[in-house]
Amino acid sequence: MNNTILNIPVLEVKNVSKDFSGFYALENVDLQVFPGEVTAIIGENGAGKSTLMKIVSGVYTQFEGSVLLNGEKVAFKNPKDAAENGVVIIHQELNLIPHLSIAENLFLGQELCNQFGLLDYPKMNKKATELLARLQLDIAPSTPVNQLRVGQQQLVEIARALLLEPKVLIMDEPTSAISDHEVELLFKIISNMKAKGVAIIYISHKIKELFEIADRFTVLRDGKNAGSGMMKGTSRDQLIQMMVGRDLTNSFNKCEAKHGAEVLRVQNLSFQNPEFRKDFLVSDVSFTLHKGEVLGIAGLMGAGRTEVLEAIFGLAPKYVTGKIWIEGKEVQIKSVSDAIAEGIALVPEDRKLQGLILNMDVEKNSTLASLGQVSRFSFISKKKEAELSNKYIKKMNTKVASVKMSVKKLSGGNQQKVVIAKWLATNPKILLLDEPTRGIDVGAKSEIYKLIGELAAQGMGILVVSSELPEILAISDNILVMSESKLTAKLGRGQASEEAIMKAALIEKE
Ligand SMILES: Nc1ncnc2c1ncn2[C@@H]1O[C@H](COP(=O)(O)OP(=O)(O)OP(=O)(O)O)[C@@H](O)[C@H]1O
Ligand SMILES: [Mg+2]
After folding, report:
1. Which one of 40, 190, 439, 503 has the fewest beta carbons within 10 angstroms of its own beta carbon?
2. What pLDDT band is residue 240 in, cutting at 50, 70 and 90?
3. Which atom of ligand 1 is nearest the CA belonging to 53?
4. Closest Cα to atom 27, ligand 1: which residue?
5. CA of 48 to the centre of ligand 1 (A)
6. Which helix (H) or strand (E) holds 194?
7. DSSP 3-state assignment of 320?
8. What H or E segment, with its residue span, contains residue 155?
9. Spacing, Cα 400 to ligand 2 middle (Å)
């Protein structure tokens, strides 16, 4: 029988509260989820979305209130128990084992065996290949996961969840690391699952996306219910009002900056693929960045955008060729410390791997990027830096109970705010930002855009990679578009539009 017509929730949360040593992350929260529907959970960074999902999926077993599956109260012992009962979660943070292959990761804890009870590698490889094809991931299942980009790893996580054939699938920010093209693909998969009666819980800060994919929503604010209903008939402004409890005048547009002298020039930059020497991750890229300019780099996942930043930052000198000038002087960047000594800073894409030390407290993390620490000859005061980064943390409305709190305990978006704050505080000449607002809520996003604008106005040259077209259009003075390792367009502010960018991003190699 069709539950949707009868309006019976497959999953229900009643009066749930969760405290972390006295701090209530959730208070008396209710949620209903229906089969064949996508339910969005919306809320600012730190609102309690991930905590609620961890309760529903058996990660947290200690909480007040109840969780009902098909009308019956359940108490999952752990995530495996939840998955066996049809409730599967794809976490906000990636959970793959880096040195294992894609196939091994997919089947970890759910290995397929042959008639002799031995691991059936051919069968697992075949199934893995099928799944990867469904996600249009053109990579051998034997590839170790640590060779994949964050976005590709995200797709592997999704594939892993699909393998479990869930009845309730929870996606905690599945699109924060993938670009528009892959999002489209994911939405097709979600539609297929919906048609089969799967209930999907979808968390995202991209409100436009929610209107495309969600049927229903529940808003959390400071750990409490702040509204729920059908997406149809609800406006963006109404959702934001529920999320933040006030109207938000954001629509940010960078003011036209007066560009100064050239700060960075890159000529014929190439980055050889360390795995397949004949292949290039970046080929023959040339461009100029001026003081006070925000230069955006757009393109699909895997186009080589991140690698351009990595090449400039000295992360893979063995594989990089080409010339780099800083303030008109040709420089040799043979290592990260060379790059830092030249006044370059990089805010990386994956905060977990490269941006933060999770077990260290917020205060220590925020001074970690100290140029003085890495480069022997610079005289930046760490105290001043800490002050600055704390100022930025406040400005972005970062929700931290105390600066002595370990970063691991912050919500995903709040961790990202700490990463950005710490790099902004180093006050570099050239700032490289890779997906800076990944997982950040709407309110804080406009704060970050404002900060980027302010830093540019002070004369910093800023290079930003972003998969969100509205973002890149709003903050950039000029936009470079990449496709398959090459630059395919340079668009000035007047010429740039979502269409123009997509057209250039889809140009294929001859
Ligand atoms: N293990 C923990 N110990 C202490 N506090 C925690 C812990 N886990 C989460 N919190 C706190 O609970 C609150 C809710 O966090 P949660 O991760 O659920 O937020 P979220 O809505 O998912 O935010 P985001 O959009 O940034 O991912 C935050 O204030 C966070 O710091
Ligand atoms: Mg979260």
Report:
1. 503
2. confident
3. 18
4. 412
5. 6
6. helix 180-195
7. strand
8. helix 150-163
9. 14
Q: What are phi and psi of 311, to 5 degrees?
A: -65, -45
Topology of domain 292-303+335-505, per CATH?
A: Rossmann fold (3.40.50)
Pocket of ligand 1 (CB under 6 A): 20, 23, 25, 43, 45-51, 92, 399, 409-414
pLDDT at 373 over 50: no
On the question of a common fold for 1-86+167-174+194-248 and 292-303+335-505, the answer reads yes
Name which residue leads in pLDDT, 433 or 440: 433
In contact, 432 and 313? CB cutoff 8 Å: yes
Contact 14, 28 (CB under 8 A): no
**Tens of pLDDT along 182-194?**
788 889 889 999 9
For residue 504, how far is its CA from the centre of ligand 2 (angstroms)?
A: 33
Q: Are 207 and 239 in contact (CB under 8 A)?
A: yes
b/e per residue 136-169 (b: at least 16 CB within 10 A):
ebebebebebeebbbbbbbbbbbbbbbbeebbbb
Whole-number pLDDT of residue 372: 43
Determine the residue of 398, 409, 411, 441 to mutate for testing ligand 1's pocket, defined as the one with the most ligand atoms within 8 A of the Cβ atom: 411
User: Residue 45 Cα, ligand 1 centroid: separation in angstroms?
Assistant: 8
User: Domain 1-86+167-174+194-248 falls in which CATH fold?
Assistant: Rossmann fold (3.40.50)
Q: What is the pTM of this model?
A: 0.75
d(CA 253, CA 333): 34
What is the number of alpha carbons within 13 Å of residue 472 lying toward its C-beta?
Answer: 30
